[in-house]
Write a structure and sequence with these properties.
heterodimer, A: mainly alpha, about 85% helix, elongated, B: mainly alpha, 6 helices
């Protein structure tokens, strides 16, 4: 399991550039938003939380099809399926590797982009906290979507159609944490619900991912 | 097949009679509402379509569970057949709601919890149907869509209640409950119930028809394969 995790991390960092790509995409989305809605700082301040969450979510989506696609192409996914490691563990390890290479870096660079979008200073800590708590759900849901569409033609488009509706609750609570935090209001409830979605997804979705992987490998 | 073939014409006839009867009763033989005028009559399409739009998803959930547990092929085909029907009902609900909302709320669309949740349900239907269309092997497609339906249901329910935190809405609350104090007046409620039952039967008839078509298509495929082997 640790070997698989380290292998995926090494592949993500060294080969293909999927690692930096998501961060660059996040940066570009955040830079484009002021062009779209105008440079007034008051307006930007209001939408910053939601925009940053949306940007992180799309950046996460961008790298989803790489979770299983490369392993599918070179056949190592079949080796993993026949290995003594249960497929559920493979799925959660893949989610963990995806989170470490996208969710975690996204959460860490988010404050810089918050600066660009004029996020109030009280919101920074909650921006990082909500992304840290919320992005594991994005990775787990994304792994499920990637497992559903592995090996399909036009898989990438289908993947976003399937996964984005599942992201609704996380996005909603995540953006709510940031905007409440920026206004100095209480963030306890949305943060707890965000964490609940992440923990629930991590607990249940690896089983669903493993089930659909077995079907797709049949 | 024999049973559904025998029952289908009767259900179809009954559905047509009830839907037409309910709509004609509702449109021409009920008074206009005191405040809403004649726009109130859109309720006879909007409410039944919305009920069937969300009800269809639960029927698909039940059919998917039967497929996953008992691997009964007809249930997978029934879930497949029901999805476009449910999607159209959802679309009708959204559309008639917009048409009614324009004169009444002064807006075609409002980010109200019920409206938003229904729009998300519509997206779930789209994803579900796209997945059916994308997988070639029918058994694999049935398995994948069944798991998607189970996971989707969980997230749809979470979304439905998550949205309540996000925005309190304009949409009126339940007004056909048995125990509520304020309900729709009886003059409106009776044709409405006829329409709801009629739409329900219409749903049954469409799903039966589409499932029979799917079964025949599957048999035809098997026959063609047999011919090739021989």
């Amino acid at each position: 399991m640790r070997g698989l995790l380290l292998r995926d991390l090494r592949l993500a960092v060294k080969a293909g550039g999927g690692f930096g790509l998501a961060l660059a995409f996040f940066l570009i989305v955040s830079v484009l938003v002021p062009f779209g809605i105008g440079p007034e700082t008051g307006l930007l301040r209001e939408v910053a939380g939601g925009v940053l969450w949306l940007g992180a979510l799309l950046a996460c989506l961008l790298s989803l099809d790489r979770i299983f696609a490369l392993d599918w192409e070179d056949g190592s996914l079949e080796l993993l399926a026949t290995s003594p490691l249960p497929l559920e563990v493979v799925a959660i390890t893949k989610s963990a590797a995806h989170w470490l290479t996208t969710g975690l870096p996204l959460a860490l660079v988010a404050p810089l982009l918050g600066l660009l979008l004029n996020l109030p200073s009280a919101g920074f800590i909650w921006l990082v906290a909500s992304l840290l708590v919320g992005t594991p759900a994005l990775s787990a849901i994304g792994t499920f979507g990637a497992a559903l569409t592995v090996g399909m033609r036009r898989g990438g488009l289908l993947l976003s159609l399937l996964v984005l509706p599942l992201y609704v609750p996380s996005l909603l609570f995540g953006a709510m944490v940031v905007s409440n935090g920026a206004e100095g209001a209480s963030v306890g409830t949305p943060l707890a619900l965000l964490a609940a979605i992440s923990l629930g997804s991590l607990a249940i979705l690896p089983f669903a991912s493993a089930a659909v992987l077995r079907v797709n490998l049949r | 097949m024999a049973l559904s073939g025998a029952v289908l014409p009767w259900i179809t006839a009954l559905a047509v009679v009830l839907v037409l009867g309910g709509l004609i009763w509702g449109f021409f033989f009920t008074p206009n509402d005191f405040r809403q005028g004649s726009t109130v009559k859109i309720i006879y399409i909007h409410v039944p379509a919305a009920i069937m739009g969300s009800g269809t998803w639960f029927m698909m959930l039940a059919a998917s569970l039967v497929w996953v547990i008992r691997r009964h092929h007809v249930s997978a085909l029934a879930a497949k057949a029901a999805a476009p029907v449910g999607m159209v009902f959802t679309l009708i609900g959204l559309f008639t709601g917009a048409v009614w909302g324009q004169p009444m709320w002064g807006t075609w669309w409002e980010w109200d919890p019920r409206l938003t949740a229904f729009l998300i349900l519509f997206l779930f239907y789209l994803g579900y149907m796209a997945l059916w269309a994308a997988v070639e092997n029918p058994d694999n497609a049935a398995d994948l869509t069944a798991v998607l339906c189970l996971v989707g249901t969980v997230f749809a329910v979470i979304s439905r209640y998550a949205i309540l935190f996000w925005n309190q809405g304009l949409h009126q609350g339940a007004s056909l409950s048995m125990d509520a104090e304020e309900n729709v007046a009886d003059v409106f409620a009776y044709p409405l119930w006829v329409c709801i039952i009629g739409f329900g039967l219409l749903f049954v008839c469409l799903v039966l028809l589409r499932t029979r078509t799917e079964i025949r298509a599957r048999r035809l495929g098997a026959l063609i394969a047999q011919e090739r082997m021989a």
